[in-house]
Write a structure and sequence with these properties.
heterodimer; A: 314 residues; mainly alpha; 13 helices; B: mainly alpha; 11 helices
C-alpha cells in the first residue's frame, strides 16, 4: 500500500510542474503586452519599461518561470493588477466559498446518483430504469447555467422562497440566513454529478449482477436485501472515484454557476480577472484550481486503493 | 453491352451481404428514441441553414415599443426580446452560430485527436510516451476551467472560443483513440499487413483506421452535447460572439435581466441549447448500443 502511494506521489510531481508551466505560459500566449491593462494608453516608453522591469517581464522566459515558481512555492502569486492586493489572499478567500458550494453540490449529486443508479441497475429495463436513466441523461445534457436561471424564475421570482443572488450577509456560516443562499446554486450544480454518477452506478450494478458470484450468493439462500449489500460493496470503489473526479470538475468549473448566482467564489474571481485583463489574478486562480484538481485525483486514487484490495495487486 | 453491365451493377448490392455500418444503421433506425432525436436535430439544423428562405422577421430589427412581448403574441409566436426583436427569428438564426461553435470544435478535435491517438497507439514506445504524457497534462485541468482559461486569455471571439474548445477536446479524443488503437495493433490482420510489406502509414490508414473509427466516433458524438453546453456557456459569459449577433448563449445572457418581466421568453434560448444537447446525448447512446452488435 505504501509503495503504491509513493509511486502515485512520484507520478504527480511531473504533472504538477507541467501544470505550473501551462499556467505560466497561458499569460505569454496573450496577444499584446501583459501590461496593457495597467498602462494608460498615452504611457511613455520609459514608464512602460519601468513597469515591465517592476513586474519582471523584461527577463528571459525560463528565468521568469523559475522566479514565478519559486515565489509560488512561498505562497506569493504576485499582485492583482486591478486591485493591487496579493493574488494568493484573493484566491484563498474565494476558494473557501467555492469549496462550500462544490462539496454541497457533490453530496446532493452523489446521494441522488447512487440511489437512481442502484435502482436503475437493479430493475433494469423496467419503467423505474427508464425514469432513472431519463433523469440522468437530463442531468448531463441540461445547460446548468440555464437551469440556474429557471430555478431562480421559479423559486425566487415566482414563489419568492429563496434569494436569487449572493452568499448572505458577512462571512459564511452554517445557519439558515446563509444556507438559504446556498440551496439554489448547490442544487443547480448537483445535476451534472447526479447524472454521471447515476449512469456509472447503473452500468456497474448491471455488470456486477451478471457476475457468477451473485448467482452463488442467491443459490446460497441469501435474501435479496443481502445480495444487494454485496452489490453496493462492489460498486463503491468506482463510484467514489467518479465522485472524487466530479468534485474536482465542480471546483474548477463553477464559473458559470457562480456567475448566474453571483456566488463570491473562484469562478466569480476568474470572471472579473478575465474582463479586467488581470492576468496575475487569472494565472493564480487557474493554478490553484488545477493543483486542487491534481491532488484530489491523487487522493481519489489512494482512497480507491485503500478500499479496493484488487487495485493494489495490479 | 452497356445496358447489361449497368443492370448487373444495380442488381449486385441486393445479393451482397450487409456491411457493418449498414447493419448499425438499420439497428439505429429501429430505435424510436434515436430516430426522434435525429429528426429534431435535423429540423433545427435545416431551419438554421435555410433560415433566410423561411420568411422570418429580421432578427436584428428591434423596436422600443414592443419589447418583451410574451409568448403567443399575434405576429410574434415566441414573443420579443429585450430590444423588441422577434424571438422565433432570433432562435432560428441563432442556431447558425450556436451549432457552428458547438459542433466544429468536436469535428476538429476528432480529426486531430484521432490522428494523434492512432500514431501514439501504433508507434508505441517513445512516441507514445511523448504524446500521452502531454495529453496527461491537459487532463490535470477540469475541462470547463481549461476552456475558460484559454478563451479568457485569448479574449472574446468566435474563433478563440472554437480554438479553446478544440484544445479541450483533443486530449480526450486522443486518449480514446490511443487505447482503441493499442488494443487493435497486435491483432493478426495487422501482422499480416506488415508481413505483406505495407508501410506504417498504409497500415494505419487502410487497415487500422476503419477498425478504430467506430468507438472514437461514438465518443465524439457524445462530446458534442458537452461542447454545445460549453460553447454556449462561453458566449453566456461574454467570451463568444458579441451583440447584436443572435447566438443562444449570448441571448440567454442578455435576457437575464428580463426574468422578472417575462420569464418565459428569457428561458427560451436555454431550451434550444438543452434540446440540441440532450438529442446528441441520446443519439450517442443509441449509436453505442446499435454498434454493440454482439448483444
Amino acid at each position: 500500500m505504501l509503495i503504491y502511494v509513493l509511486r502515485r506521489i512520484i507520478y504527480v510531481i511531473p504533472i504538477v510542474i507541467s501544470v505550473a508551466l501551462v499556467c505560466f505560459l497561458l499569460v505569454h500566449i496573450t496577444p499584446g503586452d501583459p501590461l496593457v491593462a495597467v498602462l494608460p494608453p498615452d504611457a511613455s516608453q520609459e514608464l512602460a519599461a519601468q513597469l515591465r522591469a517592476a513586474y519582471g517581464f523584461d527577463r528571459p522566459l525560463p528565468v521568469q518561470f523559475g522566479l514565478w515558481v519559486w515565489k509560488a512555492l512561498h505562497g506569493d502569486l504576485g499582485t492583482s493588477i486591478a486591485t493591487g492586493r496579493p493574488v494568493f489572499t484573493e484566491v484563498m478567500r474565494a476558494v473557501g466559498n467555492t469549496f462550500i458550494l462544490a462539496v454541497t453540490a457533490s453530496l446532493i449529486g452523489f446521494i441522488l446518483g447512487i440511489f437512481f443508479g442502484l435502482i436503475a441497475g437493479y430493475f433494469r429495463n423496467t419503467w423505474v430504469d427508464k425514469l432513472a436513466t431519463g433523469i440522468a441523461v437530463t442531468g448531463v445534457s441540461v445547460p446548468h447555467y440555464w437551469l440556474g436561471m429557471v430555478l431562480v424564475i421559479i423559486f425566487s421570482v415566482t414563489l419568492n422562497w429563496l434569494p436569487a443572488v449572493g452568499a448572505g450577509p458577512g462571512g459564511w456560516a452554517w445557519d439558515w440566513a446563509h444556507i438559504r443562499f446556498l440551496i439554489l446554486p448547490a442544487v443547480t450544480m448537483s445535476v451534472i454529478p447526479m447524472g454521471i454518477v447515476t449512469r456509472t452506478v447503473r452500468a456497474l450494478t448491471g455488470d456486477i449482477l451478471s457476475q457468477d458470484f451473485v448467482e452463488a450468493l442467491r443459490s446460497k439462500g441469501l435474501l435479496e436485501r443481502q445480495v444487494f449489500r454485496h452489490v453496493v460493496k462492489n460498486a463503491a470503489p468506482t463510484a467514489i472515484a467518479v465522485m472524487g473526479l466530479q468534485l474536482g470538475y465542480l471546483l474548477g468549473g463553477s464559473i458559470l454557476i457562480e456567475t448566474v448566482f453571483s456566488w463570491p467564489g473562484t469562478g466569480f474571481l476568474l470572471n472579473s480577472a478575465i474582463f479586467q485583463r488581470d492576468l496575475p489574478l487569472l494565472q493564480g486562480t487557474i493554478l490553484v484550481l488545477a493543483l486542487f484538481f491534481v491532488f484530489l485525483n491523487l487522493l481519489v486514487d489512494v482512497a480507491q486503493a485503500a478500499i479496493d484490495p484488487r487495485i493494489k495487486r495490479s | 453491352m452497356t445496358a447489361a453491365s449497368d443492370a448487373s451493377l444495380q442488381a449486385a448490392p441486393v445479393h451482397k451481404a450487409r456491411g457493418y455500418w449498414a447493419t448499425v444503421g438499420r439497428r439505429l433506425m429501429r430505435d424510436k428514441v434515436s430516430v426522434v432525436c435525429a429528426a429534431i436535430l435535423l429540423a433545427i439544423l435545416l431551419a438554421a441553414i435555410f433560415a433566410p428562405l423561411l420568411h422570418l422577421a429580421d432578427p436584428y430589427q428591434g423596436s422600443m415599443i414592443r419589447r418583451l412581448r410574451p409568448i403567443g403574441t399575434p405576429g410574434y409566436p415566441l414573443g420579443t426580446d429585450e430590444l423588441g426583436r422577434d424571438m422565433l427569428s432570433r432562435l432560428i438564426y441563432g442556431g447558425r452560430l450556436s451549432l457552428l461553435i458547438g459542433i466544429l470544435p468536436v469535428i476538429l478535435a476528432f480529426c486531430i485527436g484521432t490522428s494523434l491517438g492512432l500514431v501514439a497507439g501504433y508507434a508505441g514506445g517513445k512516441v507514445n510516451t511523448a504524446i500521452m504524457r502531454t495529453v496527461d497534462v491537459f487532463y490535470a485541468f477540469p475541462s470547463v476551467l481549461l476552456a475558460i482559461a484559454i478563451s479568457g486569455v485569448l479574449g472574446a471571439g468566435i474563433v478563440n472560443s472554437i480554438v479553446s474548445l478544440t484544445v479541450v477536446f483533443i486530449p480526450q479524443i486522443t486518449r480514446v483513440a490511443e487505447s482503441v488503437t493499442t488494443s487493435v495493433r497486435n491483432l493478426d490482420f495487422v501482422d499480416a499487413a506488415r508481413a505483406s510489406g505495407a508501410g506504417p502509414f498504409t497500415i494505419m490508414r487502410v487497415h487500422m483506421l476503419g477498425n478504430v473509427l467506430g468507438p472514437i466516433f461514438v465518443y465524439a458524438t457524445g462530446l458534442i452535447s458537452v461542447s454545445m453546453i460549453l460553447a454556449a456557456g462561453l458566449s453566456f459569459l461574454g467570451l463568444g460572439t458579441k451583440p447584436p449577433e443572435p447566438e443562444w448563449g449570448l441571448m440567454l445572457n442578455t435576457l437575464r435581466t428580463a426574468i422578472y418581466v417575462n420569464p418565459g421568453v428569457a428561458a427560451l434560448p436555454g431550451v434550444m441549447i438543452f434540446a440540441v444537447s440532450i438529442c446528441f446525448n441520446m443519439l450517442s447512446d443509441g449509436l453505442r448500443s446499435a454498434m454493440d452488435i454482439r448483444n
